Amino acid sequence: MSQLTDAERVQVCVLILAGEPLPTQFKERLFTGNPKPPFAGEKVPMQKPVPHGLVKGPELLAMIWPDESSRPSIRTLERFRESRLIPFIKLGHGVWYDPDQVRAAIINKCTINARKK
Q1: Contacts for 109 with CB less than 8 Å, ≥ 6 apart
Q2: Strand residue runs (E) in the chain
Q3: For 33-37, which contacts have Cβ atoms below 8 Å and span 24 or more sequence positions?
Q4: What is the pTM of this model?
């Protein structure tokens, strides 16, 4: 399939930004090898979350709080564990966490709902 010219790229960008469907001539040239690509206005199917393995404390903090400036300390994580606020797995002296379970526990136990009037 042939590549788009600069003028055609601009036209495609304008159509996408306007939320209008792309003409068939562009669809065929843009999305080769993909039988049904998502276009503007179409619903994109939800992707299944990637299952995570068990991780240690510092990796858990990096996964749940990607922004390092807002990330709690490892000591705070240990306090959460000691107070049984978050689930953990202990094998011998090692402690591991399932990031999905920890995130769910934090959301369930630490979310403060608005007051009802």
Answers
A1: 85
A2: 89-91, 94-96
A3: none
A4: 0.53
The closest alpha carbon to 98, from 70, 73, 90, 110, belongs to: 90
What does the block give as tokens for 106? 């934090």
Count of other CB atoms within 10 angstroms of residue 70: 7
Q: For residues 5 and 27, what is the distance between their CA atoms, to the nearest angstrom?
A: 14
d(CA 28, CA 2): 10
Q: Which mean pLDDT values do the consecutive 10-residue runs of the chain (117 residues) have?
A: 67 74 70 52 56 86 90 94 94 92 89 84
H or E element at residue 104? helix 99-110
Q: Phi and psi for 5 in degrees, rounded to 5?
A: -80, 170
3-state secondary structure of 80: helix
The C-alpha atoms of residue 107 and residue 14 are separated, in whole angstroms, by 40
User: Which distant-in-sequence residues (6+ apart) come within 8 Å of 114 by Cβ?
Assistant: none
How many Cα atoms within 13 Å fall on the side-chain side of residue 98?
Answer: 10
Contact 85, 105 (CB under 8 A): yes
